[in-house]
């Protein structure tokens, strides 16, 4: 058995195949490329008016290539395959580089370590595909430079400078990685005199500093520091920053380490004796088994350290809300217990669209009061298109258009914002403005079917009867103008209801607003309005409000006193009060018991839930 296992691990190709196959499954099923697409909203457009300006900027080639490939992330398996091929391509470039540095026939699985580091970066949904393309471009350029055999010093210097300029134009700030690797390689592996190496190094360092400045002065292409924005690790997750730096410094540090080790081994016999056991470990008969076990351990540890389960759940909720998969939103929200305004926001939308907003609102944490319905003004600046989604569903298309334009001003053109602008202008019968948005979308990928449907609506005289989504919004659109009050969404909801009393979403959101803001008295004034949408039945949380109001209200009025409440709600209210009385003044113990039994009620929310700022 031992001989069989050894024979298997002697085949390095099999180890690589297993690693990349496992990477593909991990990306497909856990990271989920469609969530990366949802977070980044990449937009690739054909035509010289889009491609030309992008290619004219340093790093534009990698940005363009990354944006093009990211379009395919909407297909989960294809997105996973593309990312896996990128990682495998990067590893195949690093493999011969490491072999030449180590001057050995084996890469000692260091190419898999580089692939692992790049894989772990993809666990963050803000990892830009252009970063991967920049790494591949810089690494491939360095490998080609290593293969050159130019002996003439001026010719080699000219070749290095020209290659650095090309890499700068293709990959932006990643030219520093190429230049640093080339400089270290020439200073440690070439056989020129130290004086020539010193002159060579000084000229290259001057070149590195001059290229961004000269580009800015000559072409005015942004600020000199812009091409470096993808290279410098900036992430709140410290482990991701460390992994990024290790990946960038892997090849330069390896070259320095190998040459320093060779120098010390020749000068210091003790150092050589200390290093021999480690060398035997990675050059002996079982070195492939040891390397494979080490890579497997690092892979497991790296995934455990970097995979963000909460972030993954957050993006599943966001993606589910974008495609209208409300059941998935609610199922995922039940597992996500960290307070977050956007999660509350999407959960409320999902509850309405599934018909349970006023029955199950408090089945989910509500620490933000009405900000969980509309988003606070500060948080809305980070979620502008999401706020546009809400106002669009409410029928408040002018406000939805405003937030769509704000989203585009912040993130640039995205398919989501362009679709929203096109829809609103179709509803407002603005053919020219809708045509501009449709034209921009027509230059992107995978939008043809959607565009054809909207063009058909325009050709039919803006008849939305064949599109249920637009038809519902059209019926909710106000016919009279009113002033928007960002500080008080209640006024907007009331005005929407004045225009269309049958706007069920505006009504339920207004009632939910009263519940979350503890305005039970205001809610009681609308009891008769529930008959319009619910007949003789009251939603569960409204029944809870009625029972509470009857208990504490001084003058409940005839409507409140006579409105029917189900026996199940009465029984729960009796049990709630009985449990509360049993603990008397010990509110903390009462809260713990009541949370387990009645934590999903309006009564528990009013008594025990603290609102976040």
Strand content: under 5%
Structural class: mainly alpha
Mean pLDDT over all positions: 84
Quantity of strands, as a count? 0
- Biggest beta-sheet profile: none
Poorly predicted ranges (pLDDT <50, ≥5 residues)? 271-276, 278-283
Tell me the distance between the termini: 63 Å
Shape: elongated
Number of discrete helical segments: 35
Q: Can you give keywords for this protein?
A:
elongated, mainly alpha
Question: In words, what does this structure look like?
Answer:
With 613 residues, the chain is mainly α. It has 35 helices and no strands. It has helices at 2-9, 12-31, 33-40, 48-55, 60-70, 76-102, 110-121, 129-147, 153-171, 175-189, 194-219, 238-267, 269-283, 287-306, 309-323, 326-335, 341-353, 357-360, 371-374, 377-380, 384-394, 397-411, 415-427, 431-442, 448-459, 468-476, 489-499, 504-516, 520-524, 530-534, 540-552, 557-562, 567-583, 587-598, 602-608. The longest helix is centred in the middle third of the chain and has 30 residues, at 238-267. Residues 271-276 and 278-283 have low confidence and may be disordered.
